[in-house]
Design goal:
456 residues; 18 helices; TPR-like_helical_dom_sf; 3-stranded antiparallel sheet; SusD_RagB_dom; Serine Threonine Protein Phosphatase 5, Tetratricopeptide repeat; mainly alpha; membrane
């Protein structure tokens, strides 16, 4: 009898211990994990929202991309070298180090977007759903991943090329891929995205990436690679659509920029912010707002023609206020709803004109594309009489891009890719055409050899 009692007690203890272990291992019923969230179409769609959300953050288009793409250039001057321990001012004056937290924030922000896109691309193939919907989800994830890698390689050159969801030990073993390898992957992602995405979305889904967005970004990648024939062939259908004016069109910048981003035909892709949902003090770097005299827009008024309708929107007369270009409607005293444009019809036409001119000077289509932007801005047309050579046309395009795309986080990258850095910033060493890799990222990898960019 004693043996039976001992056996029963032993079994009871084993059962109790096992039950306790199971109880302790229970996951919260109201919390999702990657394994329980990305299991159906609803999960994928929710994950896709998080990809777009990553673009909105202060790390990217809410703040840091404006510093890295504009304040670094010659359109904006930072007047507060002591603010934030000088991290923003050091970027403007070419004295940033690998400890700069704007750089680490941008690096991490882009890889956060890539991580979220990689989860979708990893899980989508096994999920049962309509093929058309699945392809649209995959296309959007690839577009966001491609945009993130495009920015990363423009900012740092060689960067880790991560195409799967990694564990910690795998991430510590990462090495930097060459810029050429990164561009090859970007081209692959955008080519596939363009084939999977629709040309338009319903009003309820406005803001999602389209085939036009994927193709326009693909052409921009080719432009950075100086593959001008591919720029021309990729943009020709989009230019035709812009001239037709049904779905896409250039839009005069007469009020805010460009007359309602959420509905404007000029916008091919923008980072969207909900009406009344973005606080000025938190996001968008206040769009260069200068209430505390921290930023001054330094684009000379003299480079605009007298009747150019873009001049008043970016001219230095806006000191102390947001520039008119981003002066979105105010929902209340502390909130704005201004979206941030990434790809516009005007940008497409200028890329198209530039590539046509690089292929051969004198192409009438090049003048047509350039003049479509200038006419839209109420500037006079350019002709073969005023631009008598390929070099003249090239100079005119570079200036037009500065005028048209001012304050859109493109200026610094244009200066670098067009080899204007020694002219615009004489005496600045060439190695500063890309930024130092954040030291925190180097500290996180096992093999640190070859991680830092030359000169830093």
């Amino acid at each position: 009898m004693k043996k039976y009692i001992i056996s029963i007690l032993t079994c009871g203890l084993i059962i109790t211990a096992t039950s306790c272990k199971k109880f302790l291992d229970l996951k919260p019923l109201d919390s999702y994990t990657e394994n329980t969230f990305y299991v159906d179409e609803k999960g994928l769609q929710g994950g896709l929202v998080s990809c777009y959300d990553a673009l909105q953050t202060d790390s990217l288009y809410g703040n840091n991309m404006l510093t890295l793409g504009e304040i670094r250039g010659d359109n904006v001057t930072d007047n507060d070298p002591g603010s934030g321990a000088g991290v923003r001012n050091s970027i403007e004056v070419f004295s940033e180090t690998s400890a700069n937290n704007i750089l680490s924030g941008a690096w991490q922000g882009h890889y956060k977007a890539i991580y979220r896109a990689n989860i979708i691309l990893d899980r989508a193939p096994a999920i049962s759903m309509a093929d058309a919907t699945k392809n649209q989800i995959i296309g959007q994830a690839k577009f966001i991943r491609a945009l993130s890698y495009f920015n990363l390689t423009r900012l740092w050159g060689n960067v880790p090329l991560i195409l799967t969801v990694q564990k910690t030990d795998e991430a510590r073993a990462n090495t930097r891929a060459t810029s050429a390898q990164v561009y090859q992957q970007i081209v692959s992602d955008l080519t596939d995205a363009a084939s999977k995405l629709p040309t338009t979305w319903t009003d309820a889904q406005r803001g999602k990436a389209t085939t036009y967005a994927a193709s326009a970004l693909l052409a921009k990648v080719y432009l950075y690679q100086k593959n001008y024939p591919m720029v021309v062939s990729t943009l020709q259908p989009i230019a035709t659509a812009i001239y037709a004016g049904t779905t896409l069109s250039v839009v005069p910048q007469t009020t805010t920029f460009p007359s309602g981003l959420k509905t404007s035909k000029d916008i091919i892709f923008a980072v969207l912010y909900l009406n009344g949902g973005v606080k000025e003090a938190v996001n968008q770097d206040n769009r260069y707002r200068n209430n505390n005299n921290t930023n001054t827009i330094t684009i000379p008024q003299s480079i605009f023609e007298a009747g150019d309708n873009r001049r008043a929107l970016v001219a230095p007369t806006n000191i102390g206020l947001r520039p008119g270009k981003f002066n979105s409607a105010v929902s209340n005293s502390t909130e704005i709803s201004g979206d941030f444009p990434i790809l516009r019809c005007a940008d497409v036409l200028l890329m198209y004109a530039e590539a046509l001119n690089e292929v051969a000077y004198g192409n009438t289509e090049a003048f047509k594309a350039l003049n479509a932007v200038r006419t839209n801005a109420n500037a006079t047309n350019k002709t073969a009489t005023t631009l008598v050579s390929q070099a003249d046309f090239r100079t005119a395009i570079y200036l037009e891009r500065r005028l048209e795309l001012a304050l859109e986080a493109d200026r610094w990258f244009d200066i670098v890719r067009t080899s204007q850095m020694p002219i615009v910033f004489p005496g600045i060493p060439a190695f500063r055409s890309i930024y130092p890799v954040p030291q925190a990222e180097i500290d996180n990898v096992t093999n640190k050899t070859g991680w830092q960019n030359q000169g830093y």
